[in-house]
């Protein structure tokens, strides 16, 4: 792989702020971000990508190509947690295998945002409908995880009977990040170019700056989780690096077969190779309390997330560039 691709990605200010956050923990600096602010940063980023995606979708319209891209996104979101579960069962009990599989079946919005920033930096175009693809990929893994709980765990029948499916589906489809993204996407579609132009000074021009703050906080959080990795062993740490590459490669193959554009194929691959650390962990805590957050959270946050935003992004783009030319 061309070293320039790696450096182009890593020497991006928001990515460097992520590593700065990690260094602050390693060197025991007292750097911290007051707790209400990270929530504001995530709200800002979700509104920004939703509005922009809606505006782009209003320009491109909904045709067979868009339908194909969205269908592929949903297919990957269903497929990944299923085969991940059976791989994880080699080393984990059913509860933890389900929770980790669901985590890797869902997606990371911040990884997606970083991927978009990378495409913008190298001047590769992508479709705004990929924002819709991202929102569609967030929830299926949660539902599949819950179906697997019913099929593969030894919860007694009374406990299964008391499972609140309403709460589960509410968590899957109405969790705050999905709700806000879909809402902002619809607002972007309805208001179109006029709406985006009026919001662009805030949600366009300040995007990278807020992303830098957000990634600084993510670096602080990820570094704190690194110490938990010692307990997990080589199999799971290897899974957290190799499985994203397998998932991204599979998505890349489908994208090539279905003739998606280079930018769309890259984003689909990146989404398929990412892992959730917000929506799915929240859902698993609610519905699979037997699974340990000390397994699925450090894997997604302290291994897969840093891998994807530093090496994964240029790696996936490198192979896409070879295939697409």
From TrEMBL:
Listed transmembrane segments: 6-27, 39-55, 67-88, 95-120, 126-152, 172-190, 202-222, 234-258, 264-283, 295-319
Keywords: Membrane, Transmembrane, Transmembrane helix
InterPro entries with a match to the protein in the record: Sbt_1 (IPR010293)
Source species of the chain: Halarcobacter mediterraneus
Protein name (database record): Sodium-dependent bicarbonate transport family permease
């Amino acid at each position: 792989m061309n070293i320039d691709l790696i450096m182009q990605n890593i020497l991006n200010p928001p990515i460097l702020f992520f590593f700065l956050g990690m260094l602050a923990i390693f060197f025991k600096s007292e750097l911290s971000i007051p707790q209400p602010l990270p929530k504001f940063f995530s709200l800002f980023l979700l509104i920004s990508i939703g509005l922009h995606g809606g505006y782009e979708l209003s320009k491109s319209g909904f045709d067979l190509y868009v339908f194909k891209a969205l269908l592929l996104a949903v297919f990957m979101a269903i497929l990944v947690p299923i085969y991940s579960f059976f791989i994880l069962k080699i080393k984990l009990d059913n509860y933890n295998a389900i929770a980790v599989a669901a985590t890797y079946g869902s997606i990371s919005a911040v990884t997606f945002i970083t991927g978009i920033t990378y495409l913008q930096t190298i001047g590769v175009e992508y479709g705004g409908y990929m924002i819709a693809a991202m929102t569609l990929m967030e929830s299926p893994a949660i539902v599949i995880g819950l179906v697997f709980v019913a099929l593969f765990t030894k919860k007694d029948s009374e406990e299964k009977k008391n499972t609140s499916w309403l709460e589960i589906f509410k968590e899957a489809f109405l969790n705050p990040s999905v709700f806000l993204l879909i809402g902002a996407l619809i607002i972007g579609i309805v208001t179109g170019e006029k709406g985006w132009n009026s919001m662009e000074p805030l949600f366009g021009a300040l995007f990278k700056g807020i992303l830098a703050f957000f990634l600084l906080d993510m670096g602080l959080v990820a570094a704190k989780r690194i110490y938990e990795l010692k307990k997990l062993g080589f199999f799971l740490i290897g899974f957290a690096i190799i499985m994203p590459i397998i998932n991204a490669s599979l998505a890349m193959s489908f994208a090539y077969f279905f003739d998606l554009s280079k930018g769309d194929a890259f984003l689909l691959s990146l989404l398929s190779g990412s892992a959730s650390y917000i929506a799915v962990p929240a859902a698993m805590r609610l519905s699979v309390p037997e699974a340990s957050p000390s397994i699925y959270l450090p894997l997604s946050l302290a291994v897969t997330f840093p891998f994807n935003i530093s090496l994964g992004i240029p790696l996936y783009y490198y192979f896409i560039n070879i295939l697409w030319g």
